[in-house]
């Protein structure tokens, strides 16, 4: 690659101080992927308005700016690893959907990474990140797109009113968006929705 470092951009659906799997695991993934300095790693996380931060973040923790939240995130991971993490952090605009108990991206979040830096994208919860994606296809922009499936959203939806019918529709949409946007799909466990051409592998930490 012309001596250019591989650039891995990790996009995820949540951030500290919300202690959810999609906030914590991608953060450690970024730290350990960047550890040996052989590749450039960027963690891309949601930025919420103050009003939405109050709905999501515990213990009345809020941030006046993305740089303030970045300091918090870095300090948290630094206290838990034995090295100085060398990855960068960027933010995409997002909102909290109370009915879904989820953070949703606003606009085309792939634009956070400039085209000249676009190489490998890791989409943590690709079905969630791409439900409302309106922009350049991820596979067009990035040389390789890896989706990591964390959550079985179908189980949550089945608990709603008319849940079984809704779940069938969401299963179809999930399969469609993941196939469109990802070259490879990794499911963290067999309990998640099955996807074509997917493998099951717990890649927390950094497995090969």
From TrEMBL:
GO cellular component: chloroplast outer membrane
Coiled coil: none
An annotated GO BP: galactolipid biosynthetic process
Location (main, coarse): membrane
GO molecular function (one): digalactosyldiacylglycerol synthase activity
Record keywords: Chloroplast, Membrane, Plastid, Transferase
Subcellular location: Membrane; Plastid, Chloroplast
UniProt family annotation: Belongs to the glycosyltransferase group 1 family. Glycosyltransferase 4 subfamily.
Stated name of the protein: DIGALACTOSYLDIACYLGLYCEROL SYNTHASE 2 CHLOROPLASTIC
């Amino acid at each position: 690659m012309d001596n250019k470092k591989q650039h891995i951009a990790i996009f995820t659906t949540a951030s500290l101080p919300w202690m959810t799997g999609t906030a914590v695991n991608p953060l450690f993934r970024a730290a350990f992927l960047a550890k040996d300095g052989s590749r450039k790693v960027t963690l891309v996380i949601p930025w919420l308005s103050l009003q939405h931060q109050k709905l999501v973040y515990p213990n009345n923790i809020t941030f006046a700016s993305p740089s303030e939240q970045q300091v918090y995130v870095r300090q948290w991971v630094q206290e838990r690893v034995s090295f100085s993490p060398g990855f960068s952090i960027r933010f995409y605009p997002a909102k909290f959907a109370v009915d879904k108990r989820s953070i949703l991206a606003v606009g085309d979040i792939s634009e956070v990474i400039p085209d000249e830096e676009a190489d490998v994208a890791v989409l943590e919860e690709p079905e969630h990140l791409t439900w409302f994606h309106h922009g350049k296809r991820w596979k067009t922009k990035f040389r390789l797109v890896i989706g990591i499936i964390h959550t079985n959203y179908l189980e949550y939806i089945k608990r709603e009113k008319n849940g079984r019918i809704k779940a069938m529709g969401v299963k179809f949409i999930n399969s469609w968006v993941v196939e469109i946007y990802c070259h490879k799909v990794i499911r963290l466990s067999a309990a998640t929705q099955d996807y074509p051409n997917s493998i099951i592998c717990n890649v927390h930490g950094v497995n090969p």
